Amino acid sequence: MYFTLAAVNMFNGSKPFHVGSIIKLIKDFENQYDSEAILVELRYAGESAYVANSVRTVVKGTMSSGRLYDKISDEDYGIVEFIFDDIIICRVLTADEIKKELKNPESDINYI
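Below the sequence we write its predicted structure tokens.
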């Protein structure tokens, strides 16, 4: 399942994402603007983006936050697959991929 990130520069103005970055997906139950908001955290940057949920920000062929919301746990993980300027496309990690990452003590998944 592929999805697009939005509001990437909203948090700290930097661009902390890189292809291969492991990200944590957190359903943002406190978000007063979007009841299906999914917050994205990175190991070294903390809260860094949201999963896109608008026809203007979701890249064709990827899932919006609303479509992804019921397909993930309250906390889940993904990986950055593509970056084109300010467009970041990620993929949800499978259970097997998460287990493999957890076994690696250097993996970002163990620190976010």
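Residues 2-110 form a domain with the Alpha-Beta Plaits fold (CATH 3.30.70).
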